[in-house]
Design a protein that fits this description.
156 residues; alpha/beta; Rossmann fold; 4-stranded parallel β-sheet; two-stranded antiparallel sheet; 7 helices; binds zinc ion
Amino acid sequence: MKLICDRMLGKLAVWLRIAGYDTLYIGDFECEDEDSELLKNFLDRILLTKDRELYQKAIKNKRAAFLIVSNDVAEQMKELKKIGVSFQLLMDRCSVCNSLLRKPSREEALEVMVKEGICEDISQKYELWYCEKCKKLYWMGSHWKNMVEFLKKLDQ
Ligand SMILES: [Zn+2]
């Protein structure tokens, strides 16, 4: 399932990437008219939108689209669960840019750790993942635990 989110759904796009879904966010592109861009392009992706008018236009054009109702990201995620999206924590896609993650080389990891002031023991305690495009490291640390808690609440 490949997705694209409208301007209102930036947070949801991040969560979808964390859950491993190939998700674009229109706010990451420079375009003059986002609505017509969303209607004409990215046709291989399901359009997620909060805009009822845009949703109706998409459906009229026979484009796969889903209307998100809630303003709250947890509720939005519950809405998506109904169409079969499952929110598991996969360490496989960059939440910032949607690129696939890989293991960093020792040099790459060191470079980011020095630049960002990340403690060296992180690399001993945790398995590291790397986004080549953002030069960013990921690991299952405290931020990860918070995300696990957030997802647990979602299931309640
Ligand atoms: Zn990235």
